[in-house]
Write a structure and sequence with these properties.
The structure holds two protein chains of two kinds.
Chain A lengths: L1 H9 L29 E2 L3 E2 L2 H9 L1 H4 L12 H11 L6
Antiparallel strand pairs in A: 1-2
Helix pairs in contact in A: 1-4, 2-4
Chain B lengths: L1 H6 L20 H33 L2 H7 L2 H27 L11 E8 L2 E7 L5 E6 L1 E5 L4 E7 L4 E4 L6 E4 L5 E5 L5 E7 L11 E7 L1 H10 L10 H12 L29 E2 L4 E2 L2 H14 L13 H12 L3
Parallel strand pairs in B: 1-5, 4-10
Antiparallel strand pairs in B: 1-2, 2-3, 5-8, 6-7, 6-9, 9-10, 11-12
Helix pairs in contact in B: 6-8, 7-8
The chains are: A mainly alpha, B alpha+beta.
The complex binds copper (II) ion.
Chain lengths: 91, 326
């Protein structure tokens, strides 16, 4: 649940619909429903914790030009957020 | 609508002071209202106890007592004299306790005009003559320890201005100006919320009051007299050009530039705001891009169009430009 608090604080949901977060459910980015069972991150990187943590903190360094911005969170916070995303299984 | 307000971002430091606690006054005006609320609650409990006792006596009491309870004297005392005396005293006390909150503006009052707009807040700082000296939106800055008179009005429908920790709740009515005073005893950030259903995303119409020490407030006011700094990087300059070419300037003003739209919040110092979307999102890069790109998903039916047609790098450049306005 620490991860959920990080996600709320950073306002990831301004762009993503994220199960467990009632509001907002932004639509600029993809829904993260079922993300734990997804094969790829952003269609390019295999869905592994280390890559996800890097991606969450600084997506533009991995996919230049993406609308997913570098987010102002620490490495530890990114790990917590990733842990939360890995609880989001297909329903 | 209530649950939405109270579950959103419970844990967010970016939205300090949210949700605003209702029974935790932080100034004299909110203090007297809280006192009144507790006294009324106490009286209600006392009256309920008396009534229950009377019912019990009527059903199970000794015959002599029951006879007294049913007598004419009891009706005069309990049914007429008691409520008349108690309610009159309460009315006088309550009115005198809260009379300072909305008495007419005097020459020396610090004045701020706040206009409710569907679904955000237009804020104007006024001088002693009521002339506008500064424009802002969605955030109200005040000196701590000092009374500030708010002139509340509305541009469209009835809204209601409410900062529970600083004062009462007063309607904002189109074509009228209602005065309400607020005061914070200590510097801090105090959450506020529209308290009169005004359609659509009413529940997402919030704001914050920022109380500074008097010295800090003076510095803040002085710094706001100048236009915001010009964009400093190539990306920010590109963002400024996009701000004009994408049509943002038709609805938004940025002091010192040709952007002078009035349909939306003044963005002259949007980079310095604590929140975006009228008190509902923390102000960071992600929320800024997310708001500009698709505010309709965040605050459905608000009056700013979504800009999903702008490519990602344009959204980012505009966000970088706006972040720099501080
Ligand atoms: Cu409202």
């Amino acid at each position: 649940m620490r991860g959920k608090a990080v996600i709320e604080k950073a306002a990831c949901a301004a762009c993503h619909a994220i199960p467990g977060i009632k509001w907002p459910q932004g639509e600029l980015g993809p829904s993260l429903d079922g993300f734990a069972d997804q094969g790829m991150i952003a269609g390019r990187f295999s869905n592994r914790p280390d890559l996800l943590v890097r991606y969450i903190r600084n997506a533009p360094s991995m996919t230049p030009g993406t609308a997913m911005p570098a987010m102002p969170i620490s490495e530890g916070e990114a790990r917590d957020a990733a842990a939360y995303l890995y609880t989001l299984h297909d329903r | 609508m209530q649950p939405l307000i109270f579950t959103r971002f419970m844990t967010v430091e970016g939205l300090a002071g949210w949700p605003p606690p209702v029974f935790d006054p932080a100034g004299p005006f909110a203090g007297s209202i809280t006192t009144l609320a507790w006294v009324l609650t106490g009286m209600a409990v006392a009256v309920l106890a008396i009534v229950l006792l009377a019912i019990w006596t009527a059903l199970k009491g000794r015959p002599a007592l029951r006879k007294r309870l049913g007598g004419e004297r009891m009706i005069w005392i309990g049914g007429v004299a008691f409520p008349v005396v108690v309610l009159t005293l309460l009315l006088i006390w309550g009115l005198s306790l809260t009379s300072g909150i909305s008495k007419p503006i005097a020459g020396t009052d610090m004045r701020i005009r706040v206009s409710g707009e569907m679904w955000w807040w237009r804020v104007s700082y006024l001088d002693g003559q009521g002339r506008e000296i500064l424009r802002d939106a969605n955030e109200i800055h005040i000196p701590a320890g000092q009374t500030v008179a708010l002139e509340l009005t509305s541009a469209d429908v009835i809204h209601s201005f409410w900062v529970p920790r600083l004062s009462g709740k007063l309607d904002m009515i189109p074509g009228r100006t209602n005065v309400m005073r607020i005061q914070a005893d200590k510097p801090g950030v105090y959450g506020g919320q529209c308290a009169e259903y005004c359609g659509g995303p009413h529940a997402l119409m919030g704001f914050v009051v920022v109380a500074h020490t008097p010295e800090d407030f003076g510095r803040w006011m002085a710094s706001r007299q100048a236009p915001p700094p010009a964009p400093a990087t190539n990306e920010a300059r590109r963002g400024a050009a996009l701000f004009a070419s994408a049509g943002c300037a038709a609805c938004h003003a940025v002091a010192g530039t040709s952007a002078n739209g009035l349909a939306g919040p003044d963005l002259s110092y949007v980079g310095a705001r604590r929140t975006l979307g009228a008190g509902i999102l923390p102000n960071n890069r992600g929320a800024m891009i997310g708001w500009i790109g698709n505010s309709q998903a965040i605050k459905p039916a608000n009056r700013m169009p979504a800009y999903t047609m702008l490519p990602a790098e344009d959204l980012k450049a505009i966000a970088v430009y706006l972040e720099g306005l501080k």
